[in-house]
Design a protein that fits this description.
Length: 158
């Protein structure tokens, strides 16, 4: 079996320097997939805490993805890094990543990543989604996606 045939990688927004206070709202169609990992990666930034909001919402139809997934709405609430330590979203810095692991079974078809950058300065970031069919994501750890050399991953498992 070639496992790569059971995965799909989407670029949600390109790595780039975005103006202060830029908001991203990108939909992900999970039809045919059981798991979705969303990675928001920070580059070199003028400010610490370049994200002021990062959340996932879900919905049954494209264009109406509005239902908040409570565990995925972090704003400045603490989440857990790869070492198991609670870390506030405001403490994200250069090279850090925010990783959502979503079990899509029993969820609505569409997910939407909502990411808003800090109003104080330009920030560099990107986001991708990795979708897989049953069994492909089993046993994956956040360290599989982000190495400690490039920054810490703040992880939310939904």
């Amino acid at each position: 079996m070639i496992h790569a045939q059971n995965t799909k990688i989407l670029s949600l927004f390109q790595p780039d320097a975005y103006a202060a206070d830029t908001a991203h709202a990108v939909e992900i169609d999970t039809l045919g997939f059981d798991y979705c990992t969303v990675i928001v990666s920070m580059g070199l930034n003028d400010v610490q805490g370049p994200l002021v909001l990062c959340s996932l919402t879900e919905g049954d139809a494209s264009g109406s993805v509005t239902d908040a997934i409570a565990e995925a709405t972090i704003a400045n609430a603490a989440c857990v890094d790869v070492e198991g330590s609670a870390t506030a979203l405001a403490n994200m810095d250069d090279g850090d990543a925010l990783v959502y692991h979503v079990n899509c079974v029993g969820r609505k078809r569409f997910l939407r990543l909502n990411a808003t950058l800090a109003a104080s300065a330009a920030s560099t970031c990107s986001a991708i989604a990795i979708m897989s069919r049953k069994g492909e994501a089993a046993g994956k750890l956040n360290a599989d996606f982000v190495t400690p050399l490039t920054g810490l991953a703040k992880a939310i498992v939904i």
